[in-house]
Design goal:
- The chain contains two helices and four strands.
- It has helices at residues 40-75, 81-108, and strands spanning 6-9, 15-18, 23-25, 32-34.
- It starts with 5 loop residues before the first strand and ends in a 10-residue tail after the last helix.
- The mean pLDDT is 89.
Length: 118
């Protein structure tokens, strides 16, 4: 499985997204940048952490959906429709913005690697 590309910034100013493990030759200055210099355990550790964040939000949404469906199936009345609206409001107005802030903060604090050109 391939991970997301790594943004390589050449000393001459060129920028290119390069898949992990591949090499890129800058069209301006002909320097060769190899992303295989990045330690595999660090790169895949970051990928596992980001996948865990995505699975967390999926698991919470499935759990909320199942709980809500069971509750409404047992109650079976239109007067409980505001419960659905309340849960959806909580999801979109409270939970997801907090989750996004957490993921973005972690993404900003991810390690950067200084590759050597050849």
């Amino acid at each position: 499985m391939k991970g997301p590309p790594i943004t390589v910034r050449c000393d001459c100013g060129e920028v290119e997204p390069v898949p992990y493990g591949d090499a890129w030759i800058c069209p301006s200055c002909s320097r060769r940048w190899d992303t295989a210099q990045i330690p595999a355990d660090e790169y895949w550790g970051v990928m596992r952490e980001m996948r865990r964040y995505r699975l967390e939000v999926v698991a919470v949404s499935v759990a909320l959906g199942i709980a809500l469906a069971i509750t409404l199936a047992n109650l079976g009345s239109r007067r409980y429709f505001p419960i659905v609206l309340g849960v959806m409001g909580f999801w979109f107005l409270i939970y997801m913005p907090r989750w996004r802030r957490k993921v973005r903060a972690r993404a900003r604090s991810l390690p950067t690697w200084n590759l050597r050109s050849s």
